[in-house]
Amino acid sequence: MADFRTCFAKAKHIVVISGAGVSAESGVPTFRGAGGYWRTWQAQDLATPQAFARNPSQVWEFYHYRREVMLTKEPNPAHRAIAECEARLQGQGRRVMVITQNIDELHRRAGTRNLLEIHGTLFKTRCTSCGAVAENYKSPICPALLGKGCEEAGCGGLLRPHVVWFGENLDPAILEEVDRELAFCDLCLVVGTSSVVYPAAMFAPQVAARGVPVAEFNMESTPATDRFRYRDNRGGPPEAEGRRRCVLSRDFYLFV
Ligand SMILES: [Zn+2]
């Protein structure tokens, strides 16, 4: 712990890789795993280009629901700690960049400004004809399906959520930025994401391989844990879910 503090105090360019574990504490559903259903479907059934081609209105209903759910959710102490960390370090000429897999914008709402949303966001649309990306906070979004579509002049194409679906590639421009950040950072924090799934599976070990310290804050150890210099995987027994979640944000506060 003391060693980590010293390391943290010296770091000038910190990359935070965040995942679903950070949003879980805000009660954001992932529609994956046991009990994770919307009607009778899970995310991997509907969050695909094939599902959208087959039935765009059903996929939009799913995303409409997810957007509406987010109106009832708030950033939690982990989001706020990360945002405060950025603000505080900025005053010292130091930089924090958050690379998130989450599409719920809770980091943004907590005040994080240096943010790469590698899986897109629930609150942007992309035109399937001309590719135009637009912010969209309309509630409900569904009337957009009734013949409105893309608002670019003369387009009117069908809009889709600007999120990366199963089987789709990440935006190469964003990946380039991610690479730049990973190559440049002198400390990397992995928060609330198992290092078995892409992209943390690739990003953090890439940083560790340069000899740069990586600190992992997760509920459980993951296959990559042993490759990181610092780790905090103090999860309790599975039944103590609420308590375990609190550990994540409380410990994060301790560090920043
Ligand atoms: Zn268009």
Automatic annotation (TrEMBL):
Substrate binds at Y63, R66. It catalyses: N(6)-malonyl-L-lysyl-[protein] + NAD(+) + H2O = 2''-O-malonyl-ADP-D-ribose + nicotinamide + L-lysyl-[protein]; N(6)-succinyl-L-lysyl-[protein] + NAD(+) + H2O = 2''-O-succinyl-ADP-D-ribose + nicotinamide + L-lysyl-[protein]; N(6)-glutaryl-L-lysyl-[protein] + NAD(+) + H2O = 2''-O-glutaryl-ADP-D-ribose + nicotinamide + L-lysyl-[protein]. It holds the Pfam family SIR2. It is found in: Mitochondrion; Cytoplasm, Cytosol; Nucleus. CDD domains: SIRT5_Af1_CobB (cd01412). Its cofactor is Zn(2+). NAD(+) binds at residues 19-38, 101-104, 192-194, 218-220, 233. Keywords: Cytoplasm, Metal-binding, Mitochondrion, NAD, Nucleus, Transferase, Transit peptide, Zinc. Binds 1 zinc ion per subunit. The keyword Repeat does not apply. The keyword Transcription regulation does not apply. GO terms for molecular function: histone deacetylase activity, NAD-dependent; NAD+ binding; protein-malonyllysine demalonylase activity; protein-succinyllysine desuccinylase activity; zinc ion binding. The active site is at H119. InterPro entries: DHS-like_NAD/FAD-binding_dom (IPR029035), NAD-dep_sirtuin_deacylases (IPR050134), Sirtuin (IPR003000), Sirtuin_cat_small_dom_sf (IPR026591), Sirtuin_class_III (IPR027546), Ssirtuin_cat_dom (IPR026590). Zn(2+) binds at C127, C130, C142, C155. It comes from the Eukaryota. In contrast to class I sirtuins, class III sirtuins have only weak deacetylase activity. Difference in substrate specificity is probably due to a larger hydrophobic pocket with 2 residues (Tyr-63 and Arg-66) that bind to malonylated and succinylated substrates and define the specificity. NAD-dependent lysine demalonylase, desuccinylase and deglutarylase that specifically removes malonyl, succinyl and glutaryl groups on target proteins. Activates CPS1 and contributes to the regulation of blood ammonia levels during prolonged fasting: acts by mediating desuccinylation and deglutarylation of CPS1, thereby increasing CPS1 activity in response to elevated NAD levels during fasting. Activates SOD1 by mediating its desuccinylation, leading to reduced reactive oxygen species. Modulates ketogenesis through the desuccinylation and activation of HMGCS2. Belongs to the sirtuin family. Class III subfamily. This is NAD-dependent protein deacylase sirtuin-5, mitochondrial. It comes from Sciurus carolinensis. The lineage of its organism: Eukaryota, Metazoa, Chordata, Craniata, Vertebrata.
